[in-house]
Amino acid sequence: MNLDPLGIMSQFDSTWLFLSLIPSAVGLVLFIYGKKRGLTPHVIAGVLYMVYPIVATTVTSLLVGGALIGLGLWYAIRADW
Predict the structure, then answer these.
(1) Does some domain include residue 63?
(2) 7 assigned to some structural domain
(3) pTM of the model
(4) Is residue 4 part of a domain?
(5) Which of 10, 35, 56, 67 could form a disulfide with 62 if both were Cys (CB 3.0 to 4.6 A apart)?
(6) Are 42 and 73 in contact (CB under 8 A)?
(7) Is residue 37 part of a domain?
(8) Main-chain dihedrals φ then ψ at residue 16, nearest 5 degrees
(9) Is the pLDDT of residue 74 over 80?
């Protein structure tokens, strides 16, 4: 009996799957914090952190994307947005 007839499960990398949970959790915390405090940059960064792991297909793109979103949030805070 073949439990994976389409071969979908063989395409997942366990390292990538575990690492993608980290920015999603950070994004949820940023989103909730920004929403409660009325901080738009935090809300936007939170949504981006929750969504970008869907698009990032490798561990490298996951790390680079997270770093870019973090730098964008840092810049927005420093610029008093």
Answers:
(1) yes
(2) no
(3) 0.80
(4) no
(5) 56
(6) yes
(7) yes
(8) -65, -40
(9) yes
